[in-house]
């Protein structure tokens, strides 16, 4: 039972703000509304129990650790941390504090929707007010439908007719709550002393690994709302110059790299959309393409909401019978960046070292796994889930199904990326390759993309022994392409 000191706070004025994928102060609808209602107790709950198979992977936990640290600093050290089943912990926290209301921003993953409905019902039954807001998407998934009331299955009409035709439903960006009154340190200490709940310090969430593999990921990213704003500001100041063309070239660093900040809610898509639109015309090539990519994120959530089996089942039913191979060794070679194809290996090593992979390279490595290696796309999705700092259930599932040819608006299965041609076209000087494959640094440029073609004397001069210093190719691109097309033909139309 909570102490009188905590409950002496006016029961009608204390609200709990439950932070989830909205780790920011600015443009946070839940926090903004709660601040207007009275005193606020902010809380974050690490809920691996309800998440089940979709509990965060290792790289995401590293990013989350630093993001929570930044948020707590913004909240003057008042952010309360819990770990466990949120459907039990949150009602208990309400009872212990005597709070009269709970505010949160909606999440759209199936497991979160089911859990949140359960929590809302329990709180309402106890006469606790529950207020949920949209803090994560430009358009609610149920607000953009075809004329017959059914959801879109193809991206282009969804964006052009559904989204761009409904820009008036995008909520305006909110300021930060100027009159944010947080529960006092004294009352928080009293709560910790008297509550049955175990309120944790950040390190007690155990988000960082016990072995030191996360250093390069931490060095690659600045987490937190301030860092996210700086990155967005820099993007706007250069007016997204060269974005449309440059985003295909991994060495050019032309992508926004906002994805982890959007996933954890250090930025809202409303802020990004608004600032781009205020600075640039919608029909400008770079801004138009950038906003369409932001809308692809929306489409991914849209698909997940309307088809909640997206992470586990092919969107196109006929692909459920696809004859994938069980190839543990091949999967491991792909995961470790030891396939013998430089663009594949560079991408997989970038993923491991930084928790990120360039978008163009994601498509190349995905196609290689599913179509050349004939390994189930879900194996790739699972590896990305553990290794990406921006691992997002909606985007990860939709994108892997797109690459595999079995998703909504997917690239046809017979469109198989040739990693050699992709490498030569989009990294002609090998700059990206050499960032992650330093063992090939002394090879002449003409052999960087295909070291197996280099004469023995060239390899010797470069200090490269294939099969030892760098792997030999694990497969034949032409034969495996033909195998994939035969597998496609085996499916019932």
Features:
single chain, 493 residues, alpha/beta, Rossmann fold, Serine Threonine Protein Phosphatase 5, Tetratricopeptide repeat, DNA Cyclobutane Dipyrimidine Photolyase, subunit A, domain 3, 6-stranded parallel β-sheet, 6% strand
Task: Map the helices and strands.
Elements: H1 4-7, E1 14-19, H2 29-37, E2 39-46, H3 48-51, H4 58-74, E3 80-83, H5 86-97, E4 101-105, H6 110-125, E5 129-133, H7 155-163, E6 181-182, H8 185-194, H9 215-220, H10 225-237, H11 243-246, H12 259-263, H13 269-279, H14 285-306, H15 328-335, H16 342-354, H17 359-372, H18 377-387, H19 393-404, H20 419-426, H21 431-436, H22 445-448, H23 456-462, H24 477-489
Parallel strand pairs: 1-2, 1-4, 2-3, 2-6, 4-5
Helix pairs in contact: 5-6, 7-14, 14-19, 16-17, 17-19, 18-19
| Assembly classification | single chain
User: Any idea how many domains?
Assistant: 3
Helices and strands, in order, run as: HEHEHHEHEHEHEHHHHHHHHHHHHHHHHH
At CATH's second level, what is the architecture of the largest domain? Answer: Orthogonal Bundle
Number of helices: 24
- Beta-strand percent range: 5-15%
Note poorly predicted spans.
1-11
Arithmetic mean of pLDDT: 93
* CATH level-4 homologous superfamily of the largest domain: DNA Cyclobutane Dipyrimidine Photolyase, subunit A, domain 3
Helix content: 40-55%
Written account of the structure:
With 493 residues, the protein is an alpha/beta fold. The chain folds into three domains: 8-134, HUPs (Rossmann fold, 3-Layer(aba) Sandwich); 137-172 and 225-306, Serine Threonine Protein Phosphatase 5, Tetratricopeptide repeat (Alpha Horseshoe), CATH 1.25.40; 317-489, DNA Cyclobutane Dipyrimidine Photolyase, subunit A, domain 3. The protein is built from 24 helices and six strands. The protein has helices at 4-7, 29-37, 48-51, 58-74, 86-97, 110-125, 155-163, 185-194, 215-220, 225-237, 243-246, 259-263, 269-279, 285-306, 328-335, 342-354, 359-372, 377-387, 393-404, 419-426, 431-436, 445-448, 456-462, 477-489; strands at residues 14-19, 39-46, 80-83, 101-105, 129-133, 181-182. Strands 1, 2, 3, 4, 5 and 6 form a six-stranded parallel β-sheet that branches. Helix 6 (110-125) links the parallel strand 4 and strand 5. The radius of gyration is 24 Å and the shape is globular.
């Amino acid at each position: 039972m909570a102490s009188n000191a905590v409950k002496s706070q006016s029961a009608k004025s204390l609200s709990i703000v439950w932070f989830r994928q909205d780790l920011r102060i600015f443009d946070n609808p839940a926090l903004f509304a709660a601040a207007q209602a009275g005193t606020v107790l902010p809380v974050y709950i690490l809920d691996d129990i309800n998440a089940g198979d979709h509990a965060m992977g290792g790289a995401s936990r590293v990013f989350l650790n630093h993001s929570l640290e930044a948020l707590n600093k913004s909240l003057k050290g008042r952010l309360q941390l819990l770990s466990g089943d949120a459907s039990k912990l949150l009602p208990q926290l309400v009872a212990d504090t005597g709070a009269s209301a709970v505010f949160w921003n909606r999440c759209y993953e199936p497991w979160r929707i089911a859990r949140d409905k359960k929590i809302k019902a329990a709180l309402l039954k106890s006469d606790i007010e529950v207020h949920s807001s949209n803090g994560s998407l430009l358009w609610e998934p149920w607000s953009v439908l075809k004329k017959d009331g059914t959801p879109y299955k193809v991206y282009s009409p969804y964006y052009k007719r559904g989204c761009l035709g409904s820009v008036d439903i995008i909520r305006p960006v909110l300021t930060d709550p100027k009159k944010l009154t947080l529960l006092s340190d004294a009352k928080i200490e009293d709560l910790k002393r008297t509550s049955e709940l175990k309120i944790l310090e950040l390190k007690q969430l155990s988000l960082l690994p016990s072995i030191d593999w996360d250093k390069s990921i931490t060095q690659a990213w600045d987490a937190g709302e301030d860092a996210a704003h700086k990155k967005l500001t820099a993007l706007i100041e250069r007016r997204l110059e060269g974005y449309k063309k440059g985003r295909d070239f991994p060495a050019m660093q032309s992508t926004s790299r906002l994805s982890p900040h959007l996933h954890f809610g250090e930025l809202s898509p409303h802020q990004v959309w608004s600032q781009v639109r205020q600075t640039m015309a919608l029909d400008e090539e770079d801004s138009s393409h950038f906003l369409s990519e932001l809308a692809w994120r929306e489409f991914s959530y849209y698909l997940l909401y309307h088809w909640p089996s997206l992470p586990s089942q092919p969107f196109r039913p006929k692909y459920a019978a696809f004859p994938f191979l069980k190839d543990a060794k091949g999967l491991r070679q792909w995961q470790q960046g030891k396939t013998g194809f430089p663009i594949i290996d560079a991408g997989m090593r970038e993923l491991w070292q930084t928790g990120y992979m360039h978008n163009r390279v994601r498509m190349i490595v995905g196609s290689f796994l599913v179509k050349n290696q004939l390994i189930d796309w879900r194996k790739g999705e699972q590896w990305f889930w553990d290794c990406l700092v921006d691992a997002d259930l909606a985007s990860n599932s939709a994108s892997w199904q797109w690459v595999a040819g079995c998703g909504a608006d997917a690239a046809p299965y017979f469109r198989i990326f040739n990693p050699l041609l992709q490498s030569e076209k989009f990294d002609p000087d090998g700059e990206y390759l050499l960032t992650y494959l330093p063992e090939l640094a002394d090879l002449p440029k003409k052999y960087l993309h295909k070291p197996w073609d280099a004469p023995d004397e060239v390899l010797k001069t470069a200090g490269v022994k294939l099969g030892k210093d760098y792997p030999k190719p694990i497969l034949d691109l032409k034969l495996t392409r033909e195998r994939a097309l035969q597998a496609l033909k085996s499916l019932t139309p």
